[in-house]
Write a structure and sequence with these properties.
This protein has about 325 residues and is an alpha/beta fold. The protein contains 4 helices and 14 strands. The protein folds into 2 domains: about 160 residues, Spo0b-associated Gtp-binding Protein, Chain: A (Distorted Sandwich), CATH 2.70.210; about 160 residues, P-loop containing nucleotide triphosphate hydrolases (Rossmann fold), CATH 3.40.50. Bound molecules: guanosine-5'-triphosphate and magnesium ion (MG).
Length: about 325
Amino acid sequence: MASANFIDHIKIFIKSGNGGAGSVHFRRERFLPKGGPDGGNGGNGGNIIVQGNNNLHTLLHLKYKKHIKAKNGSPGQGSNKYGDNADDIYIQVPLGTVMRDAENNEVISEIVKHNQKFILAKGGKGGLGNTNFKTSTRQAPRYAQPGLPGEEKWVVFELKLLADIGLVGLPNVGKSSLLSVLSAAKPKIANYPFTSLIPSIGVIKYYDNSFVMSDIPGIIKGASKGKGLGTKFLRHIERNAVLLFIIDAEVDSIKDTYNVLLNELKNYSSDLLYKDKLLAISKSDLLDQEMIDEITNNDLPKDIDFIFISSHTKNGLNELKNKLWKLIN
Ligand SMILES: Nc1nc2c(ncn2[C@@H]2O[C@H](COP(=O)(O)OP(=O)(O)OP(=O)(O)O)[C@@H](O)[C@H]2O)c(=O)[nH]1
Ligand SMILES: [Mg+2]
């Protein structure tokens, strides 16, 4: 991962607790030589439960947790005493966390709401004590059930940021600048490529509503083959309803640049191409009207709506928000 502080992929061994054994025990009373069975049931093993937490935005807090285990249920005891159930263990995760079985890569669950819970590994049931096995023909059963074992598995936790709009562009084109003028987010901005090494998200107010935009590190030609920061961050725009392409007004060809970006997306996942898209030509304050006309007439891709914007003068930003809102809804 590009930054030590943004962890969005992690593998953890989890194990729920075993059930406690049922007890084999007989009542002992002074004047009752043959007391009946009174072995209690074992307690249940602890569950491992994931829980959504909207205060978390990375999986960093899990980075050093290679194993997460719940305790076993306690065994049953005489006098029909039940063993205690073991406590459940909660794993807090940010919204947008997907869990997969590391063995077959199958999705186990996905957390999208605050407090949403899912049992990743169920604790084993406690065994029944010998009290339960007394019948008319068998007054003194000498057996009880063992507790059932808990579940164990390696689980991959993967965070996909939940945002309505995902920014897609080459490095240094003004993606973070745009997010910072549209929202309260404060991503790092500087005049060199790969300023942003981690994704950031911001909430954009729109009249009485709001929507969420995610800024991911810039991608370059060959990113899908590992160039630059690669395309691993594209997983964060897989959930976005709308992709906003940002192309610097000063590039040689907007059309060619657009195709480079599309191609990298396609190499990552062709599903991305079917999302709603909008093209924003950034830093338009550096263009005069003649250049704007020239681009509009000769250098725009055909299949996508476009808008000229400037984060410095704020030109075009209201119209951009209108267009984005329409696309989301
Ligand atoms: N003239 C002008 N410059 C801009 C505008 N928006 C951004 N810039 C400048 O462009 C440079 C890059 O801006 P960033 O917002 O960091 O670009 P980015 O796309 O997030 O870059 P990476 O994170 O490296 O991919 C900075 O020097 C900004 O000041 C704009 O509207 N007009
Ligand atoms: Mg940036």
